[in-house]
Amino acid sequence: MTRADRLPAWGELQKLRESWSLDLRAAFQQDSARAQRWQFEAAGVRVDLSKNLWDEAVWSGLLRLAEQAEVLAQRDAMLRGEAINNTEGRAVLHTALRAPAGAPTPFNDEVQQALERMLGFAEQVRASGIRDVVHIGIGGSDLGPAMAVQALQADLPPHLRLHFVSNVDGQDLAAVLPQLQPQTTLFIVASKTFTTQETLANAEAAKAWFLAAGGTELARHFAATSSNREAAQAFGIESVFGFWDWVGGRYSLWSVIGLPLAIAIGAERFRALLAGAHAMDRHFAEAPAERNLPVLMGLLDVWYRNFLGFSSRSVAPYHQGLRRLPAYLQQLEMESNGKCVDREGNPLTFATSPVVWGEAGTNGQHAYFQMLHQGTETVPVEFILVRQPRYGFQPPPALAARLADQHRKLLANGIAQAQALMQGKRFDEALGEKAPTANPQLAADALARHRSFPGNRPSSLILLEQLDAHSLGALIALYEHRVFVSGAVWGINSFDQWGVELGKALCSQLLPRLDSGDVHGLDGSTAAALRWVRA
Ligand SMILES: O=P(O)(O)OC[C@H]1O[C@H](O)[C@H](O)[C@@H](O)[C@@H]1O
């Protein structure tokens, strides 16, 4: 396939870039329909893309780029189950996990059987004497369920506590163990490969604690979710929930890796999560490119990364339950698209994955938003707003009024930040303002320069009616497909992650040196760090 930067549309976009001078404030003044023009809806997720630095010419150039890069044909190949993960020779079928029973999607029977078994077990656990569920996993075997359990906290039954342990740092597990009783705890060891150092270390430690604390019937208190059944059984776990190599780790929330979430929210809501994702899958599969939300967002990402040169994107979910979403999206996007060669292994001459980062609003406003407003770089921001809060209990009237007021403040903050980023503040406006806390010795024009905002900074608004299992499923699927789209334009394999291997290999070579003290052949810095550890 022709490399993206050799496609005619790439050249057209470059030309547009050269004479690029869109001012969002003016664009809204000149075109009263701008907001409406760039509003989209899919599977209950509304997205306002109008405060982004693009116009009709860029938009149609990007659509031509998608066509020439055969993005939709690549999408269809994924959905059909072709081995698009070419470096591992695997299909990429997380969409098949959310298809309903009887759908004409690959592996539908196997998927439904595994789902039934997993949901049946989840319901059993919910009805048993288990009070604490400790999920041990890392990366794709942690971030999805950990993020989703927080997001859907309002749906958790009061008698259950969910804990997520991922770090090889024993302090992670040690913080959880003292809260547990062995006979009322279920440990779930989640690892696609069942070879991951951190997970196996934590699982061994959990087993040792369980036995030392007088736990009996280990088989009833340990379960595993893995595509390596033999290794999980060799570890001593009888209840193993298997899945397939065509489910990528960072796309595995929908598989049995979602078990802790299913225990937390129950079978019916877990099915709603799948249904929400499936609704977004259908939109992605069926909507024409010019109204296809993941296509448009993925193309906008390409415009920002390759033509406007923005190297990062910030995600600001104005919902406390979504505070782990930025971490989840970091793996989704940066592990998928952080590549420097194309599918055939040819070096790329253009940029790929941006840095994705963020924090729940309003907290981020009081930390890094300064840089977003007045820093020297433009960082597109994605605001996620949820119209109706859910607290998981019925607040008494006096509290309900307070909480409703706080929710209005939350939403107003999110909308105002997007407005401020775009609007900015001119020098003359700042000059005309009083600033009671400013240093009176400072010249007025110098102060006004400190207090001016360039504005014209882009953002998107993602609006959900409420955050429930269905809308969360749709939201996550939207992100998955959007990452697919930019990866497809760039011609990279978004489904491998060779970049995590080297550090793992070097770690296993260094470990024995911590005992032996042998620094032979190491660079000076590595040797010094090793000596420091041993001192
Ligand atoms: O599920 P596991 O096999 O334990 O893998 C856990 C994680 O570790 C790896 O290093 C990869 O970077 C991730 O993609 C993966 O999700």
Automatic annotation (TrEMBL):
* Record-annotated active site: E335 (proton donor), H366, K504
Protein localization = Cytoplasm
Identify the species of origin.
Inhella proteolytica
Indicate what this protein is called per its UniProt record.
Glucose-6-phosphate isomerase
Q: Which Pfam families match?
A: PGI
Q: What InterPro entries has UniProt attached to this entry?
A: G6P_Isomerase, G6P_Isomerase_C, Phosphoglucose_isomerase_CS, SIS_dom_sf, SIS_PGI_1, SIS_PGI_2
Q: What reaction is this protein's catalytic activity?
A: alpha-D-glucose 6-phosphate = beta-D-fructose 6-phosphate
Gene (UniProt): pgi
Task: Name the NCBIfam families on file.
Answer: PRK00179.1
Gene Ontology, cellular component aspect: cytosol
E.C. no: 5.3.1.9
Question: What keywords tag this UniProt record?
Answer: Cytoplasm, Gluconeogenesis, Glycolysis, Isomerase
Query: Is-annotated flag, keyword S-adenosyl-L-methionine?
Result: no
Domain of life according to the entry: Bacteria
Which residue windows are transmembrane per the record? none
Q: Which GO terms describe its molecular function?
A: carbohydrate derivative binding; glucose-6-phosphate isomerase activity; monosaccharide binding
* The keyword Cytoplasm appears for this protein: yes
Q: Which family does it belong to?
A: Belongs to the GPI family.
> Which pathway, per its entry?
Carbohydrate biosynthesis; gluconeogenesis; Carbohydrate degradation; glycolysis; D-glyceraldehyde 3-phosphate and glycerone phosphate from D-glucose: step 2/4
EC top class named in words: isomerase
